[in-house]
Write a sequence for this structure.
């Protein structure tokens, strides 16, 4: 129930407003002067204040000033006579929500009160949401103690206060948007909008309209003009996810915006200046794409002012226990289940898994496990089949020396073959990059790749015959 304070020296007006507002469902309190209203106002007890301007002693303007000092989010509506409209205008300058002129229309007053309280509710919700978002994406709330994650967090802390364009690289599921939001909420722009769009999720014409907006009648269905996301994000940050998926035509348009900081709506003729910080992300090798002429070199240098490289989960395995427990707490709270720990065998399987889907896959696995678990601890049986499976490397390479011994040279050959195959997969077939991952010279890598038939169809034929 919203609490309303009425301040008026006329008893008849106080009684009338009290009866009317109580019928509307408000909790009503009344004071006969600014002096009598001072103490309850200082206690911040009210959601709305209605005050007459002209009163003996201190005027309604004093009530307004007190309210703005102690309860700045509580709207104040002033009541005035025709002869004192100048005072009403002064009240608006001091922060009054609105004023009503005597004699007033009761229905009009009800609407003004309702709108004022609704505005207050929306402002409070927006304030709470912003505070929650800022807390959620604080740097010290990001999970991970591994050296690789510490490097990422240190870089985020350095670049956040700047206006520099940032390129966030990494495989899908590594948390690129999480880092982008952390950059925004740690920046001076944190009170302005953060707008995110997946550039690879829509065709060019729709993407252009989403980014830059469109004029009325610019295409079939454009019955009204529409702001683009660059305009919506004005003063804040725009996050261009999967920018590597954009077409050459769209890359030219993005380059122009980054160079000139001006946009033109689709079908429009006027240009609009925008003050937007650009963060971009990709799961592709933009260096390679530039070399292959699939991504514009000039745009690449525009977005790659500062690069943040997100490590894959398999590259920071020491973070798996902390991440898993973080998700356990999250989904335990959502489901209401009192699951307090992860069993030893389950944790070992989590540590052994290769995590091709990275942190996102780990979150999904824990969410599934929490939903299925019937005990107070996550067991291996609650994990997905893929995570429960023994890794191929563990099957092929014995961890201990058996009583009968092993062929060490053969095992070392198999180990080298395994890691070379894995490096090629991660490097998307680029031999030079695969060799770098293993610390091998390109000549040595090429020699063994040919020896193990990693580069031709004979390997598949051998596997088929072996099966």
């Amino acid at each position: 129930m919203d609490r309303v304070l009425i301040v008026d020296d006329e008893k008849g007006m106080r009684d009338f407003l009290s009866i009317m507002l109580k019928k509307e469902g408000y909790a009503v309190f009344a004071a006969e002067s600014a002096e009598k209203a001072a103490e309850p106002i200082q206690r911040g007890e009210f959601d709305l204040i209605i005050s007459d301007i002209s009163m003996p002693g201190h005027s309604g303007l004093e009530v307004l000033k007190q309210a703005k000092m102690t309860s700045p989010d509580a709207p104040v509506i002033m009541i005035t006579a025709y002869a004192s409209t100048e005072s009403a205008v002064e009240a608006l300058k001091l922060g009054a929500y609105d004023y009503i002129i005597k004699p007033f229309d009761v229905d009009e007053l009800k609407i003004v009160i309702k709108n004022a309280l609704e505005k207050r509710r929306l402002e409070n919700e927006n304030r709470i949401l912003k505070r929650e978002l800022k807390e959620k994406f604080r740097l010290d709330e990001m999970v991970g103690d591994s050296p690789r994650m510490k490097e990422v967090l240190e870089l985020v802390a350095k670049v956040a206060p700047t206006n520099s364009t940032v390129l966030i690289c990494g495989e899908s599921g590594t948390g690129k948007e999480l880092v982008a939001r952390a950059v925004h909420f740690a920046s001076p722009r944190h009170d302005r909008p953060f707008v995110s769009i997946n550039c690879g999720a829509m065709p060019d014409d729709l993407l252009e309209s989403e980014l830059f907006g469109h004029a009325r009648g610019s295409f079939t269905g454009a019955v009204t003009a529409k702001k683009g996301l660059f305009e919506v994000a004005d003063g804040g940050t725009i996050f261009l996810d999967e920018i590597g998926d954009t077409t050459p035509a769209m890359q030219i348009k993005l380059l122009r915006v980054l160079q000139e900081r001006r946009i033109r709506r689709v079908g429009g003729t006027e240009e609009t200046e925008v003050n937007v910080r650009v963060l971009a992300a990709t799961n592709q090798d933009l260096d390679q794409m530039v070399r292959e002429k699939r991504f514009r070199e000039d745009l690449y240098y525009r977005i790659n002012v500062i690069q943040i490289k997100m490590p894959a989960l398999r590259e920071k395995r020491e973070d798996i226990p902390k991440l898993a427990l973080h998700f356990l707490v999250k989904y335990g709270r959502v489901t209401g289940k009192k699951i307090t720990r992860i069993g030893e065998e389950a944790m070992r399987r989590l540590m052994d898994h290769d995590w091709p889907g990275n942190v996102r896959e780990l979150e999904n696995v824990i969410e599934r496990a929490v939903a299925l678990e019937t005990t107070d601890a996550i067991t291996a049986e609650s994990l997905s089949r893929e995570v429960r499976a023994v890794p191929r490397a563990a099957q092929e390479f014995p961890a201990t020396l058996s009583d009968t011994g092993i062929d060490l040279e053969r095992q070392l050959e198999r180990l080298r073959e395994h890691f070379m195959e894995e490096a090629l997969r991660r490097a998307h077939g680029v031999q030079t990059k695969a060799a770098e991952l293993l610390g091998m010279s390109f000549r040595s890598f090429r020699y063994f790749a040919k020896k193990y038939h990693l580069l031709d169809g004979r390997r598949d034929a051998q596997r088929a015959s072996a099966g």
Remarks:
- The CA atoms of residues 174 and 359 lie 6 Å apart.
- The radius of gyration is 32 Å.
- The first strand starts at residue 3 and ends at 7.
